[in-house]
Fold this sequence. Notes:
By secondary structure, chain A is of the alpha/beta class.
Amino acid sequence: xxxxxxxxxxxxxxxxxxxxxxxxxxxxxxxxxxxxxxxxxxxxxxxxxxxxxxxxxxxxxxxxxxxxxxxxxxxxxxxxxxxxxxxxxxxxxxxxxxxxxxxxxxxxxxxxxxxxxxxxxxxxxxxxxxxxxxxxxxxxxxxxxxxxxxxxxxxxxxxxxxxxxxxxxxxxxxxxxxxxxxxxxxxxxxxxxxxxxxxxxxxxxxxxxxxxxxxxxxxxxxxxxxxxxxxxxxxxxxxxxxxxxxxxxxxxxxxxxxxxxxxxxxxxxxxxxxxxxxxxxxxxxxxxxxxxxxxx
Amino acid sequence: xxxxxxxxxxxxxxxxxxxxxxxxxxxxxxxxxxxxxxxxxxxxxxxxxxxxxxxxxxxxxxxxxxxxxxxxxxxxxxxxxxxxxxxxxxxxxxxxxxxxxxxxxxxxxxxxxxxxxxxxxxxxxxxxxxxxxxxxxxxxxxxxxxxxxxxxxxxxxxxxxxxxxxxxxxxxxxxxxxxxxxxxxxxxxxxxxxxxxxxxxxxxxxxxxxxxxxxxxxxxxxxxxxxxxxxxxxxxxxxxxxxxxxxxxxxxxxxxxxxxxxxxxxxxxxxxxxxxxxxx
Amino acid sequence: xxxxxxxxxxxxxxxxxxxxxxxxxxxxxxxxxxxxxxxxxxxxxxxxxxxxxxxxxxxxxxxxxxxxxxxxxxxxxxxxxxxxxxxxxxxxxxxxxxxxxxxxxxxxxxxxxxxxxxxxxxxxxxxxxxxxxxxxxxxxxxxxxxxxxxxxxxxxxxxxxxxxxxxxxxxxxxxxxxxxxxxxxxxxxxxxxxxxxxxxxxxxxxxxxxxxxxxxxxxxxxxxxxxxxxxxxxxxxxxxxxxxxxxxxxxxxxxxxxxxxxxxxxxxxxxxxxxxxxxxxxxxxxxxxxxxxxxxxxxxxxxxx
Lengths: 296, 280, 305
């Protein structure tokens, strides 16, 4: 290599370092003024006092907002405790906790007797959640009967005009076969009619909500906890899908949200459960849109 | 000392080669229970409904072929055109930056193409072509962009060789750049073109994230290009939930094995073309 | 060299048709060039326009104070810190495993292997290079099931597993770049060492590897870029949406490409979507920077040989 080349490179390196340092300074000044600290939760600090380790959770996607909120409180109170969250759906939850790949498998339904026996599952139900059909907020459709819903999701009704909407094809979104949101929706809202294989498949409650909120001709379904102003939840047979109606039993499509361990929960997982059972934990569950059920 | 170092090199070299063999053995071993449990027929059916015991991956094979085939159909002529542009037809001021862009494209993360497409392409196609916009069409358009640099650079490498051998002769004949490329380079680069097509197709079949994010992932046999389809790759990514003892689980490894065998065949074909090239 | 058939001179009858074909070639090449230029301009423009406004400490450190995050390990809630560190760790770990093996294997293929073994190994490396990354991920996933059933009942998908699977993905790049760099050294350089009585190993270590360094280094950089951008492998081998910083090789981790994939599908607020655009811009700059660096190296190398 020529010496001219060497000089040029060292110049570039120096210039680069200077820019880095300067930008670092700017960032430091800017950031120092702007940020606030998360207040420490005394409840979490008390329950997790002296503990350390990681709780790995995977499975049902309805749980993610709750776990993220709880993880934030717990790790802020005790940095030695971590909570990792992965989705995948209820099927993943059962299989991965059963195979010992995570500490907690979350499920959007109660595990079946066969699953409990095969993997020695210990379920912990922490919340109730309804499942509802959702459409784009601009859609004029407000209410559908079970028959209509079943016809839409099985592909027999293909145009919005047949449901009192503007003419145009219906874009059906569904979840994969490992989803409990799907199995509950099929059995309770569609009366067991299976969903068309031509439907778009999305991998989580969050992805379902995002997809429907972007497409004026879409229809899909999510846990009621995921409903916000970006999508409209459809009434079923005239009953509004609210968590209150779901708890009352007036709205029929309801499931429990569960955490499952294989074998007895470890001390750390036990603390996690105890934290969810506190008033603060219940508040987190409510904030995520679910009805806390407070325990086993 | 000499021997030890030479042995280390050999261990690394042979070890790296054996990784490929290990993959083949592993995929075969993990899909073998399909044979022993008599699931081969179910896997080769057109219905995917694991709850009812159907583990057909034919729709995904067709999905992969639709997207990869469509992508090559677009990217091959386009790549060829770009290559011609870079080799004399385009003016220097345009050709140089364009070459840099094409080379840069080889390093662009696939997930970014899909990410941009979710917000730009999907809504546009929803309005123009109908359907939800999450479709074979969306995916194949984006995959076409993904494989264009592979095709361009493969053909370009061949053109560069030809350039050394033939350029002066074509100048002496008084050919224009377009004539030189159309009548001399293109026919002479035929094997390079086939290699480019195979490599592009292989890259398209191997893509996971684009199909996963914008092809819609429906499990039916694709019937329309604006409908949702699922590829073998995104099928593997989506179905890890399956029970380890079930046919659904093994069918994932069958899908992986299929992809691997495809790569194997493509490489054998490339070898064959290469050897023909050398013999002429 | 056989003269192509089409060069048998076009007759007068054919000349008009030939001219038309030449025009089609001309038009088609401009069209394709315009197509890819437009597509890429839109692509870069879109990422830049949406990503640039999100840049700032908040993008990386979220709602936490950056000093707390960097020095005291407080999680950066809502920021990309864990994903950036996760991707960085993953890339470094992958390089630590892959570079020595890849370079050594490249040296073996270029300087030692002969005949059938050489042909088989280069074929195997090519096949590995064409294998879809999701298959590597599937391998990792199956490997864990296998290990749990046999020697390591506590094996889990983790940083280490992801790095091992990414190694399989980037090895072919490293091997072929190393091999190419060595084989394209001028013959007089390759032979002068042995002529002066150096053994093969001395020749490799003292003469060939140092001369081929820029080429090998650009291979390393390409491999790093590939490891940083891949989503499919880590999807099956231990990446999660929310993990914090990895504290060990056995931990789950976050990564930039997965964050982009995840947030694109299920952002819950405009803020999360902005984070995704910021992550996209960071990842694009990272891989773009690596590319230009590798290009410089290659240029210099070409000029020097």
